[in-house]
Amino acid sequence: xxxxxxxxxxxxxxxxxxxxxxxxxxxxxxxxxxxxxxxxxxxxxxxxxxxxxxxxxxxxxxxxxxxxxxxxxxxxxxxxxxxxxxxxxxxxxxxxxxxxxxxxxxxxxxxxxxxxxxxxxxxxxxxxxxxxxxxxxxxxx
Length: 141
Fold this sequence. Notes:
By secondary structure, the protein is an alpha+beta fold. It is 40% helix and 28% strand. The protein has a 5-stranded antiparallel β-sheet with strand order 1-2-3-5-4, with helices on one face.
């Protein structure tokens, strides 16, 4: 299994750079363009959730990103040391109402992550919140 780990500050521009790194890593994996977009979207949503919710929007906290690639699946872990995500929120995530969308309340991130990835789990490991997202693929290039 191949693996790479990054640590980024909890700032929007760092999340964008992490997504560019993911895009580069995905070039070596046999996924179609839509699946690659889905993985990048999931990483962006997960890191943004860490920034906004775990750290309350405070900059300069650490967000961890680990990507592991084996011959059949891609595993992406986004981690932080902020407020924990209630596992029920992940399990029960659904699209927000139209009224919430119009008011800019957000709330689509966990739903989108669950929809575009094959498996999504959250756990607490060594004092860190870890969101583990898995996507099957057709091999390495």
